[in-house]
Amino acid sequence: MPTLKLDILVIPTYNTLSLAVADASTYPDDPPVVTSPTLEITVPGFGTVIKTFNVNELNIFHSDDLGITATGIEQPLPDGIYYFKYSVAPALENFVEKSIMRVDKLQEKFDEAFMKLDMMECDRAIKTQSKVELNSIYFFIQGAIAAANNCATLQATKLYQQADRMLDNFNNADCGCTGNNYIINFY
Question: 8-102, which class in CATH?
C-alpha cells in the first residue's frame, strides 16, 4: 500500500494571465482521502494567499484568485519568484514546498522581439547580430530560471533584470546597427 507523499508541479500555461499547479502526490487511498488540502502561494510583491487545493487535479489561478485584483478582474500575473507550500492536515507533518521563477511576461517580450527579427529589412550581418543578441538574452532568461530553481534568489533576480534590460535595448534599437559584434566575435 502506498504511503502519503505530497508533491506539486507548476505547469507552464504560456499565458501571462494564469498560473497552473498540478497535484503530483502519491496517496494511500484511491480516491484520496485527505483533510484540509491547502496551497499557500507567495506572489512576488503581493504577499501570501492560502487557497483550497483540489486533490488529483490541475488547479488554475488568476490575479483575482491571488488577491492581486478584485473578483472578476484579471490582469497579467507578475514575474518573479513564487513560493508554494502544499499541505494536508495535520499541516505540521504533511507538506511540500517549492519555488519557481515565473518569466511569462519576459518571455512574451522576448517572443515579440524574436518575431521582429523576421520582419527586419536589414542586411545579413545585422540579422546575424540580432540572432546573437537574442541568443544571449535567452541565455540570461534560462539562467534566471535555473538560479531560482536552485534557491539562488539574488542571482535569479539579477539575471532576470539583465535579460529585461537587454530586451529593452534590443526593442529600442533601430535597423541601423553595424553587426560588429558578430563580425568581431564569430566571423
Answer: mainly beta
